[in-house]
């Protein structure tokens, strides 16, 4: 297996160690960006590890300047604002409601009972406009880190294999109305938007993720394994436990 030199695979003994390592490096990366430029930006993800990282950040935030941090979301389950399935609600409970963020710098994706009503296409278009508005030039900001979880079939954000959303080459945000994983209606950043991040981190654990992780690391076509198309401008980092890394050859590990 040949692995691109900008892909770094770190393997840890268990899921707690994966989350702890990712959250420690996230603190360091945010602080370094804030010291260099005065601000940092992170795209959050839902799922077990994504929300686990936020809980760990709350416990050990290091020197993060919360007021100078922009928060975006990689995808959202298009459900009412108070639905516990919402990534935004889970993120707020785990971290965002407990730290001194600037509300103008937190950018949730609309809920199905929000200002665009039950219209995921309108919510997607509005979020694309948010990304464009916060970009110096172009369609999206250059994020410091885009966090991603991964499903067993290789989905990242709400980009599932063999779908229009994963094939999208132009729009930064699209609606998904037939997600194979419930809930069916979602709004998601596309692979072109993910690739606006300096660093893309895929944080995932468990034996169910092993085949997709090995395929993505070795360059599987994104239409088949969406995680394979999630690449950072500077680096792509995989954080895996031993079970998820079981099929990744030792030579590919950092
Ligand atoms: O549905 C989703 O699933 C993925 C992966 O979740 P995990 O629990 O298997 O880590 C997640 O990254 C995505 O944001 C979410 O909407």
Structure description:
The chain is an alpha/beta fold. The chain has one domain: Rossmann fold. Helices cover 29% and strands 20% of the residues. The protein is built from seven helices and ten strands. It has a seven-stranded parallel beta sheet. Strands 4-8-7 form a three-stranded antiparallel beta sheet. Helix 7 (210-217) links the parallel strand 9 (197-204) and strand 10. It is globular and about 50 Å long. The site of the ligand O=C1O[C@H](COP(=O)(O)O)[C@@H](O)[C@H](O)[C@H]1O has 16 residues, from helix 2.
Provide key terms for this protein.
254 residues, alpha/beta, Rossmann fold, seven-stranded parallel sheet, three-stranded antiparallel sheet, 7 helices, 10 strands, 29% helix, binds ligand LXAUTJHC, 6-phosphogluconolactonase activity, hydrolase
List the helices and strands and how they pair.
Elements: E1 7-12, H1 15-37, E2 40-44, H2 47-59, E3 69-73, E4 75-77, H3 87-94, E5 106-107, H4 120-133, E6 143-148, H5 164-167, E7 173-176, E8 186-189, H6 191-194, E9 197-204, H7 210-217, E10 235-241
Parallel strand pairs: 1-10, 2-3, 2-6, 3-5, 6-9, 9-10
Antiparallel strand pairs: 4-8, 7-8
The protein binds ligand LXAUTJHC.
- Computed Rg: 17 Å
Q: Give the integer mean of the pLDDT values.
A: 96
Spatial sequence of strands, sheet with the most strands: 1-10-9-6-2-3-5
Range of strand content: 15-25%
Total of DSSP H or I helical runs spanning 4+ residues: 7
Which small compounds were modeled alongside the protein?
Answer: ligand LXAUTJHC
Look at the structure and give the CATH class. Answer: Alpha Beta
Structural class: alpha/beta
Question: What is the helix fraction of residues, given as a range?
Answer: 25-40%
- The strand count comes to 10
